[in-house]
Write a structure and sequence with these properties.
The protein is of the alpha+beta class. The strands form four sheets. A five-stranded antiparallel β-sheet has the order 1-2-7-8-9.
Length: about 425
């Protein structure tokens, strides 16, 4: 499968067992050399490119934060490493373009894999960049006995210690290697390609004649091809467009010429089904591929599932491959992608500010407004009390007749 070449080699281990080594080549590589003519690349399909572009756009819009575990709640770390990853992870690339390259590799060019080479600063062990590899030059050597993998890049072996390897859909037999959607969607892509060709043929108007000529079927001129050509030249020499129809007058009577439409051959319904399958495979709401109406709930679900899941995979891979401090980790914040309106943000901020869970300047920042000096102080309602002070309220302790008229006095009771 997928251009795998099995070669059994004897490896000397303590148990003297046999280790199976395989070379794993992605379909993107393999089909450059072997194809039966029916191969349809994911990258060449408009619907797939739209789906992947939307995913890449959303994932690359999320800021990537370096976080540190803390007993009172994890805090963001702002240092040179955090700046490198969140701003310019590779030479000449911003985080957005770097993320877009990563997502396109996973879905289109790397068959579920994307690889970046770790480059250190000259004369030190500090990270300088994570340089992207050309996935068309990548193949894998997999040791099934020890579950070890080596990357072959342009025929040269690269150690996994110097690489950051992102993957989706781990192969069930070789779990260190991801798998894409090329094999699953191949027949569907051929259907969509054929539908586009049929649509193009219909748009040319070749199926409808520009002129219909009725002639006497018993005419001697129609007995030979030369005679029919003479009739056509006599009446239709100036005709432009599709070939005309010449029919016998006493046999056929054409009153209306109405060519088949895409709906007549159920092409629209077939294309919609295929588009929905593509959308479901990539986790997109159908409206993102032009099917149905926009749904806020579907969009937010898409952010919570597919986009947040990809973000978590990327953050966990970076944490595993480049961080040495066990208290540090990378994290995305998908909440910035949710579809909020201004009223919802205002109501959320008000509830947080009233309970001193958010400052007023944080509220303004959430709404995209600049901070103000007169908004620095924390405010809250007077009758909000710490939990350990709830029993100190005067109305609970007084036994006089006026006890029921006292309100909660948070200021006096702490």
């Amino acid at each position: 499968m997928f251009g795998i070449n099995f070669n059994r080699k004897k490896t000397k281990t303590k148990s003297q067992r046999r280790s199976q080594m395989i070379t794993y080549t992605s379909p993107y590589n393999f089909t450059q050399f072997v194809t039966d003519g029916s191969y349809a690349s994911l990258a060449d399909n408009p619907d797939v490119r739209i789906a992947v572009s939307l995913i890449a756009e959303l994932v690359s819009n999320m800021s990537l934060h370096l976080m540190e575990n803390n007993p009172d709640g994890d805090k963001r770390v702002n240092n040179q490493l955090a700046h490198l990853i969140d701003v310019n992870p590779a030479k000449g690339m911003t985080r957005k373009t770097w993320m877009a390259k990563l997502i396109n590799d996973l879905y289109l060019f790397g068959d579920g894999n994307s690889l970046f080479q770790i480059v250190a600063q000259p004369g030190s062990d500090y990270l300088s960049e994570m340089r992207p590899l050309d996935m068309s030059q990548v193949s894998y050597k997999y040791d099934t006995a020890d579950s070890q993998m080596t990357v072959l890049y342009g025929g040269k072996e690269l150690s996994m210690d110097g690489l950051v390897h992102f993957l989706i859909n781990p192969d069930p037999q070789y779990p260190l290697i991801g798998t894409g959607y090329q094999r699953i969607l191949s027949s569907l892509l051929r259907n969509l390609s054929q539908a586009q060709q049929v649509k193009s043929e219909f748009m040319t108007g070749k199926n409808m004649p520009s002129v219909i000529v009725k002639v006497d079927a018993d005419s001697e001129e129609l007995a030979s091809k030369a005679g029919r050509d003479k009739v056509a030249d006599k009446y239709l020499n100036s005709t432009q467009g599709p070939e005309p129809w010449i029919i016998p007058a006493d046999t056929l009577d054409v009153t209306t010429v109405k060519p088949l439409t895409l709906r007549d051959i159920a092409l629209n319904e077939s294309v919609e089904i295929d588009k929905k399958t593509v959308a479901a495979m990539f986790g997109l709401p159908p409206f993102m591929l032009g099917l149905g109406q926009y749904s806020k709930e579907q969009y937010n679900t898409f952010i919570n599932t597919r986009i947040a899941g990809l973000g978590q995979m990327i953050a966990q891979t970076l944490t595993k491959d480049i961080l040495l401090n066990p208290a540090w980790y990378f994290a995305f914040n998908p909440r910035s992608l949710y579809n909020y309106d201004a009223k919802e943000l205002a109501e959320l901020g008000q509830a947080m500010v009233d309970r001193a869970a958010m400052g007023r300047n944080e509220w303004r920042s959430m709404l995209g407004l600049d901070p103000r000096d007169d908004m620095k102080n924390m405010l809250m309602l007077e009758n909000y009390l710490p939990v350990d002070k709830l029993g100190d309220q005067k109305k609970l302790n007084d036994t006089g007749s006026d006890a029921g008229t006292d309100s909660i006095k948070g200021g006096d009771d702490g």
